[in-house]
Write a structure and sequence with these properties.
This protein is α+β, with helices and mostly antiparallel strands. The chain is built from four helices and 18 strands. It has an 18-stranded mixed beta sheet that branches.
């Protein structure tokens, strides 16, 4: 099928997306979203992106957020993507609110926009509750622990790697390491951990250097997309895992390949929640014919 579409190219810390407005009319039929999203995301042969975002009407929030990875698979949630969506709907007068509710596949998130002279300068997202229980991630702890996936040893082609897994709407596996993340072969470890038997729905993979209890560096392999310059849910998960392990404080400044994010953890004694704050940028708006 060949179809002309209007879209906006956006990025958040280098994590880039094609954003399509479906709040009034469905542009890409449901049965075609897999192929269309995969086609649009293909670099050098199309627009090129880490994924495609569809802004849609919601029955329980101000707007509905759907995101498809570059391999065509739909993701439950994306921290950088949801910031792009919040800026997009504000800038295009779809939801002209500085505090808005956004429906995701998992739940409803609150976005708080900082607006200066009608320009969105940053977006803070309430990322909700963190889940460490394996069945809720989903994950299978090699130790057999069914209560949490903490400091579990997984086998990657004979090498033992210690990882902690958490979900904030989508699954993440985090390795805190003393090895400089610039020296880690992400193309080797990323796909092998993403598809590891411990993670039945696949997983986002992060290697973290701790600079101090208030500051970290992160290298990310994103499920369905590969290396990405930044991952909002992943950064949130890294800080939540670090706080859970007693390695990090509640407020952490994170350095990613594409920029910086600020994460704040709230400890409710029996569970943790977090907020994520960062920027989103509109690159350009365009119209083109797409074959999928």
């Amino acid at each position: 099928m060949i179809k002309e579409i209007e879209f906006t190219k956006m990025h958040a810390l280098g994590n880039d997306y094609v954003v399509i407005n479906e709040t009034e009319t469905i542009i890409i039929p449901e049965e075609d979203k897999f192929n269309a999203s995969k086609t649009l995301s293909e670099r050098r042969f199309n627009v090129g992106a880490d994924g495609v975002i569809y802004a849609q009407k919601s029955d329980k929030a101000d707007v509905r957020f759907r995101i498809f990875n570059s391999d065509g698979s739909e993701a439950e949630m994306c921290g950088n993507g949801i910031r792009c969506l919040a800026k997009y709907v504000y800038d295009n007068n779809i939801v002209k609110k500085e505090t808005m509710s956004i429906e995701t596949m998992e739940d409803v998130k609150e976005a708080r926009l900082t607006v200066v002279d009608n320009e969105v300068t940053s977006i803070e997202i309430d990322m909700g509750k963190a889940y460490f229980k394996p069945e809720e991630i989903p994950a299978i702890a090699p130790s057999g622990n069914t209560e949490e996936f903490i400091n579990e040893e997984i086998d990657v082609e004979g090498e033992k790697i210690i990882m902690t897994s958490v979900s904030v709407g989508n699954p993440h596996a985090i390795c805190f390491t003393d090895v400089n993340i610039d020296d880690i072969d992400l193309d080797f470890y990323g796909p092998r951990i993403e598809h590891h038997e411990a993670f039945p729905a696949r997983v986002n993979v992060h290697f973290v250097n701790i600079e101090s209890p208030d500051e970290i560096d992160i290298l990310t392999w994103e499920r369905g997309a590969g290396f990405t310059f930044a991952c909002g849910t992943g950064t949130t998960s890294c800080v939540l895992a670090g706080y859970k392990l007693g390695l990090l404080n509640q407020k952490v400044h994170a350095h990613l390949s594409g920029g910086e994010l600020d994460i704040t953890v709230t400890d409710h004694n029996d569970y943790l929640t977090a907020t994520m704050k960062g920027k989103a940028v509109t690159v350009y708006e365009a119209k083109m014919e797409v074959e999928y």
